């Protein structure tokens, strides 16, 4: 039996993580970081970038791998990513994404997640997230231009 392989992108800005509300039409909708399965000939990094573009409309670059989750059915690699362009919009060809939002650790505590085992990892990652000065400047410029205008700039 062939193992499922996938990638996920973890994008943090202003102590919030980029999330999507997802699910099939007949199931309850739950939150997740943008993620999905590898397509033929695709690397984990390429899959991560593609899935974020499809699910959120944002262009990202990979910073580094931050977690590898292995299960009996397969594995998924989580990458720290940085927004480099695009506009926040749902382009999901599978029609499984219903909403895009930025969630704080406090909000994550009470959210129904597609993968509940991600909750502790995501909360700790956000709380320990560090930018270098250049990244903060670039992220703020992109957030201001391409994302929610109501995000607090500190």
TrEMBL record:
Signal peptide: none annotated. Keywords: Hydrolase. The keyword ATP-binding does not apply. CDD domains: NUDIX_Hydrolase. Residues 3-125 form the Nudix hydrolase domain. Its cofactor is Mg(2+). The keyword Protein biosynthesis does not apply. GO terms for molecular function: hydrolase activity. Belongs to the Nudix hydrolase family. PANTHER family: 8-OXO-DGTP DIPHOSPHATASE-RELATED, GDP-MANNOSE MANNOSYL HYDROLASE. This is NUDIX hydrolase. It comes from Virgibacillus salarius.
């Amino acid at each position: 039996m062939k193992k499922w392989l996938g990638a996920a992108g973890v994008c943090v800005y202003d102590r919030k993580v980029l999330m999507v509300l997802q699910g099939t039409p007949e199931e309850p909708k739950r939150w997740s970081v943008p993620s999905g399965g590898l397509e033929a000939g695709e690397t984990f990094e390429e899959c991560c970038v593609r899935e974020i573009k499809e699910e959120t409309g944002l262009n990202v670059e990979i910073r580094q791998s931050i977690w590898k989750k292995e299960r009996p059915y397969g594995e998924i690699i989580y990458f720290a990513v940085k927004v480099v362009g695009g506009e926040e919009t749902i382009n999901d060809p599978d029609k499984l994404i219903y909403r895009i939002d930025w969630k704080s650790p406090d909000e994550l505590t009470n959210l129904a997640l597609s993968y509940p085992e991600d909750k502790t990892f995501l909360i700790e990652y956000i709380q320990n997230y560090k930018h270098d000065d250049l990244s903060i400047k670039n992220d703020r410029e992109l957030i201001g231009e391409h994302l929610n205008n109501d995000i607090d700039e500190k």
